[in-house]
From TrEMBL:
The keyword Lipoprotein does not apply. The keyword Nucleotidyltransferase does not apply. The gene is grpE. Signal peptide: none annotated. It comes from Euhalothece natronophila Z-M001. One of its GO terms (biological process) is protein folding. It comes from the Bacteria. Keywords: Chaperone, Coiled coil. Pfam families: GrpE. This is Nucleotide exchange factor GrpE.
Length: 165
């Protein structure tokens, strides 16, 4: 014969000892406290992310303003002053430096590759050109600057290399 005295009845009634009840209430209380702490931490992280995003937008808008100023001047002066044309590379270089500063604050830095041979960890060959004056597979031109994000290649350096004819 099977003893069913420890089995719950069909209407699912359970009996807890006072110690079990206190332990259960304590665990529920701890879970509710942990839930509140997690919600607060999540809100803090959301606020931080939003603040960082706003700062990025403000910095990018500074670049926008600089470009808009140049475009407005060119639109209003179809025959720009030669002094403006002479200063244009410096003005564009200043905007480029500002952009690199914005990227650096976010740990995005240019890949510095000084070798004449591509390092395939950081370089991507996008074209080859016949050259008799160079060894095969020598970098002849950097097409696009590559960037690191921390220690990971965010975008490889795009290069053209020589090939023997």
């Amino acid at each position: 014969m099977i003893d069913n005295s420890n089995q719950p009845s069909s209407n699912l009634e359970y009996c807890l000892t006072p110690e079990q009840r206190e332990e259960l209430l304590s665990q529920v209380g701890n879970l509710l406290k942990e839930k509140l702490e997690l919600k607060q931490e999540l809100q803090k992280q959301v606020n931080t992310a939003n603040s960082e995003k706003e700062q990025l937008f403000l910095e990018v808008l500074e670049l926008f303003d600089g470009l808009e100023s140049l475009i407005t001047y060119l639109n209003e002066n179809p025959d720009p002053d030669p002094r403006f044309i002479k200063r244009l590379p410096k003005s564009l270089g200043t905007l480029q430096k500002k952009l690199l500063t914005i990227l650096k604050r976010r740990e995005v830095t240019p890949i510095d590759h000084s070798s004449s041979v591509p390092d395939y960890q950081v370089c991507q060959v996008v074209d080859r050109e016949p050259r008799d004056d160079l060894e095969d597979n020598t970098i002849t031109k950097v097409v696009r600057q590559g960037f690191w994000l921390n220690s990971k290649v965010l975008r490889p350096l795009e290069v053209i290399t020589s090939k023997a004819e």
